[in-house]
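Posting for a labmate who doesn't have an account.
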Amino acid sequence: MHEKQPGLVMRLKAKPGKADELFQLCHVMHFNGDPDGPVDWVLSRSDEDPDIMWAFEFYRDDESMNRHYTNPELDAGHQRVMDLLAEGVEEWGVRVPVHIVTSS
């Protein structure tokens, strides 16, 4: 990880009974062979609500992140994630672009 590395912080809430499937799917998708996919990532489960995933993804550069999220070959996988999410995106959804200031 390096200074100014681009990334996303996402808060996703699974449908009831679908959290484990959501975590497994997101884990597998990070190994899809996309050369523009995240180079560093973490999937975390909320201690307060086990249906909530906090995902932290970091990319080589802004261009690779943009290519990743506009790659039509990944649309089906991203749709599978969306299908596992609880209703009411305005209540639970967070997708914030970030850049690293410092890291260990």
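Reply:
Got it, the structure tokens are right above this. Helices lie at 19-29, 62-69, 75-83, 89-92.
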